[in-house]
Amino acid sequence: MGRKQYWRMDELESARFRIYALEDGAIRAQALAFCLRIGLFDRLEEGALDSGEIGDAFDLSPRVVPSLLAFLASQGPIERGLDGRFGNTQAASVFLVRTSPRYVGGRGLLFQGFYDAIAHLPESLATGKPWTPAGQHDMFGGFGPEEQAWFAEGMFANAVHGARWLLEQVDFRSGRRLLDVGGSTGGYTLSILEAVPALQATIFDLPAVRDLAEQRIRASAASDRVSFVPGSFFTDPLPKGHDMLLLSSVLHDWGDGDCERILKRCFEALEPGGTVVVTEPMLREDYSGPDHPAASGLTMVVLGGENRMPNRICELLESAGFGACWQSEVGAQNSVVTGKKPG
After folding, report:
1. Of 3, 48, 121, 223, which sits with the fewest C-beta atoms within 10 Å of its C-beta?
2. Which residues neighbour 181 within 8 Å (Cβ) at sequence distance 6 or greater?
3. Which fold has domain 159-284+304-340?
């Protein structure tokens, strides 16, 4: 055991309020999701409003408006001008306005769909079991159209930001055809295709995602180089004829047994000599974080998955037949592990 760290009183006070933020995290997440759902940031992007106008615009009780606005202003998404009106900060304009190309609000709505599951986190931590016997299988199978839209929007937000970093780690110019397995609405694929004009791609995901994915594809400048194939990577054969295969935030959704099934199908579908790319939140080998992968790993606990360390991803790839495993440095959002199918 290391020596106990001693802090000055002001450091302890700061630590106390960080602990408070951990304790009331559910309240913070719910409040943000509420504001996203009613379109508060979209409305403020059109012009600043005073507290009364905000209450009237969204039919909010005068009793709740001060607390809601004080919370948002203290956390950074909105700010009060000298004229007393509230408007979006730059961060809200970029990340919380739905029409922004860098919008991440879908992730907040995504987690609102997980609240029933997250309520079971204490028992999942104690038992090591997901909230239902089938874990993720139950969750995805029970999604209705609105939940599917939340999930797809949240994954797209994650993917667009993750793709920028992934392109710095992996040279997709070496490939001809990319298969994005479990690619949702194409956040990764479309970003990669825009950066690599010679590449073609196929997105493979559940039929329920198809309409949402094809909307994104039609709006993309790379629409003529990508197609969507519906199916389940547990029950349906994966499309053939691809020399690169992407698994973005897929393996961490599932336990080891399901990962082995997924990777076996990926190995069979990939062309000889092809490259598999795994990108998702991963943990440092010394258990020091990073913050986002560590916190999202708790979500995986309750849903039946696991945020793994890069060495464990390599072991899973090698067990499926892949070789030449390569790892990126562990990243703040995602990390990358690649492998090669023998030629």
Report:
1. 3
2. 204, 233, 238, 245, 246, 247, 250, 262, 266
3. Rossmann fold (3.40.50)
